Amino acid sequence: MVVSRPEAVLIVDADDQFVRELSRELRALGFPFVYRAASTGQALAMLHRVLPTLVLMGFDDRPASSRDVITRAEQLGASVALFSNRRVPLSSEPGILRKDRSELAGQALESLVLGLIDAAQRRSRSSIPVAERVA
Known about the structure:
The protein is α/β, with parallel strands linked by helices. It has a single domain, classed as 3-Layer(aba) Sandwich (Rossmann fold). It has five helices and five strands. Helix 2 packs parallel to helix 3. The protein starts with 7 loop residues before the first strand and ends with a helix.
């Protein structure tokens, strides 16, 4: 039995078939809140509304717009992973996980997603003042 998880995941990619497959896998892992943005502009508009714990973003050829999404997502406490279907350096951003699309399936996807969500939750807990955590 798959346990439903409360975390939201935002997928940023223009490839409809890939996004459908990835969304299906994430839902099978227990993530009912999977959202999609087809562009970095859409992602920026959605971030404050969706408040994702995790952003899985396809690398595009416009690193400046990708950087805007990464910065905004991190400001909101989300973990970010970049993926590509081509063997190119994805980013020089420190702390940003880079994956090949082929690695976003099955057990590898589950491990990646759970690790990134755990990291986001640890950052969130450490940013809460001690007095608020105790209350």
